[in-house]
């Protein structure tokens, strides 16, 4: 099967799986808001956002491993080295997850959680502490088991993840419904979707390990391979850290400077606006492996043609979505939140261009990553994150939730939005 067909097959399967995840998440949010109230859901959004920072604990090794496997596959090298690399990264990340989970659980009961999370009087502090522990452990354990997705992605076989991603989303939704029916606390209900995600990637890892794949999971920890992956992995780590700092700190800042109701408002509007970025990524991300193989095999003409096509597709997908959000966003928000969160047209008008610019620049970012060019983007990502943090803290006190969205847009336009496309153009001119 050609690299083009594999990429489109992956895009289709990812679209179906992530579409199901999106719908499951929307319905789960609908149930959570009605069960916990806007303040309770706001706390869940804050906790999951903060714990989302922990995904950087893969140290960029997951993406570095993916590029390593892409190169190995493109050059038709043996599978033993690939298996050792996959196994080494998996066991290292699992050890890190277990150690960090133990430390984090202890810290939850030492740190002033009520003050740090601005826990309102209507919420049970002990239940919130348990929520932090549950989400913390689920996020950490998901990190090593997600590596199987990078393994499939490197060989353009990510479509094999479809049943597991779909099963994880449906399992998470089922857990939410069962826990609400059993009248469980915010700790169980708020972490249910993450439990489903962990179940899905755990099963995917087990099936891949037992399938006799060319890239197998062994009980090995190769120090030399890990050291070789570290330089590029550290750059990916910086990019991931910056991205999480931008996305997750926004909700935390709103919660800290305003309240849980405002954080729920910001979180729901952001999730709607992120549909633009999400839809574009469905078509762009599957081409990472294909672009990487084209680069290693010197197929510049194919590379350039696919980049042009991806830009056209991104615009073709984004513009109708923006029209739908503008026309039916308020109706969706009312139905989604049960009237507990009002539609904020000014907030959405700021978030839409932000996520549109990210979606379009993300095409160039994917191409640079596939070309193993990550040091420069890592540096500019840090500048973006720092500027976003400074502007958000200032503008939230001046303009409220809209100020945080405006800070995100301005910081991105002043950093990554111009640098990433310019860097790709420079690299393409040098590729003869």
Number of H/I helices: 17
Can you give the helix content as a percent range?
over 70%
Q: Please report the total strand number as a whole number.
A: 0
- What is the approximate shape? globular
Radius of gyration: 21 Å
Order of helices and strands: HHHHHHHHHHHHHHHHH
Largest sheet: none
Global structural class: mainly alpha
State which percent range the strand residues make up: under 5%
Mean of pLDDT: 85
Work out the oligomeric state of the chains in this entry.
single chain
Counting structural domains, the number is 1
> N-to-C terminal Cα separation, in Å?
27 Å
Low-confidence stretches: none
Summary, kept brief:
The chain is mostly helical and 432 residues long.
Task: Tell me what the structure shows.
This protein is mostly helical and 432 residues long. It has one domain. Helices cover 83% and strands 0% of the residues. The chain contains 17 helices and no strands. Helix 11 (260-284) packs parallel to helix 14 (345-370). The longest helix is centred in the N-terminal third of the chain and has 49 residues, at 3-51. The protein is globular, with a radius of gyration of 21 Å.
What are the defining features of this structure?
432 residues, mainly alpha, 17 helices, globular, 0% strand, 83% helix
SSE map:
Blueprint: H1 3-51, H2 61-74, H3 79-108, H4 113-116, H5 125-145, H6 147-154, H7 162-181, H8 186-190, H9 192-210, H10 223-257, H11 260-284, H12 287-296, H13 300-337, H14 345-370, H15 375-399, H16 401-413, H17 416-430
Helix pairs in contact: 1-5, 1-7, 1-10, 1-11, 1-12, 2-3, 2-6, 2-10, 2-12, 3-5, 5-9, 7-9, 10-11, 10-15, 10-16, 11-13, 11-14, 12-14, 13-14, 14-16, 14-17, 15-16, 15-17
């Amino acid at each position: 099967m050609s690299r083009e067909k594999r990429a489109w097959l992956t895009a289709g399967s990812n679209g179906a799986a992530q579409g199901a995840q999106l719908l499951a998440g929307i319905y789960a949010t609908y149930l959570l808001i009605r069960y916990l109230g806007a303040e309770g859901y706001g706390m869940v959004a804050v906790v999951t956002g903060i714990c989302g920072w922990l995904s950087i604990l893969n140290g960029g090794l997951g993406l570095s491993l993916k590029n390593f496997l892409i190169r190995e596959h493109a050059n038709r090298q043996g599978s033993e080295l690939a298996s050792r690399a996959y196994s080494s990264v998996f066991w290292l990340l699992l050890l890190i997850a277990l150690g960090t989970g133990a430390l984090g659980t202890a810290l939850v009961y030492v740190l002033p959680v009520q003050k740090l999370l601005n826990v309102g009087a209507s919420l049970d502090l002990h239940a919130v502490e348990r929520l932090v522990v549950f989400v913390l452990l689920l996020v950490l354990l998901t990190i090593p088991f997600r590596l199987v997705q990078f393994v499939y992605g490197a060989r353009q076989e990510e479509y094999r993840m479809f049943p597991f991603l779909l099963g994880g989303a449906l399992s998470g939704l089922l857990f939410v419904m069962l826990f609400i029916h059993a009248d469980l606390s915010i700790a169980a209900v708020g972490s249910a979707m993450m439990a489903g995600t962990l179940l899905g990637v755990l099963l995917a890892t087990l099936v891949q390990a037992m399938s006799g794949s060319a890239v197998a999971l062994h009980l090995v920890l190769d120090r030399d391979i890990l050291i070789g992956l570290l330089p590029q992995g550290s750059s990916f780590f910086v990019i991931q850290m910056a991205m999480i700092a931008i996305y997750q700190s926004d909700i935390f800042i709103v919660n800290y400077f305003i309240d849980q109701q405002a954080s729920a408002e910001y979180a729901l509007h952001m999730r709607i606006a992120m549909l633009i970025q999400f839809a574009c990524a469905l078509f762009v991300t599957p081409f990472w492996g294909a672009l990487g193989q084209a680069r290693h095999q010197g197929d510049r003409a194919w590379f350039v043609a696919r980049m042009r096509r991806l830009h056209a597709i991104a615009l073709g997908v984004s513009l109708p979505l923006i029209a739908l959000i503008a026309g039916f966003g308020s109706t969706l928000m009312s139905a989604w939140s049960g009237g507990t969160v009002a539609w904020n047209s000014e907030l959405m008008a700021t978030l839409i261009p932000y996520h549109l610019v990210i979606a379009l620049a993300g095409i160039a970012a994917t191409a640079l990553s596939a070309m193993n060019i990550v040091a420069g983007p890592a540096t500019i990502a840090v500048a973006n994150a720092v500027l976003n943090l400074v502007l958000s803290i200032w503008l939230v006190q001046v303009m409220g939730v809209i100020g945080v969205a405006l800070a995100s847009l301005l910081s991105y336009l002043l950093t990554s939005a111009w640098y990433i496309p310019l860097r790709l153009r420079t690299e393409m001119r040098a590729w003869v």
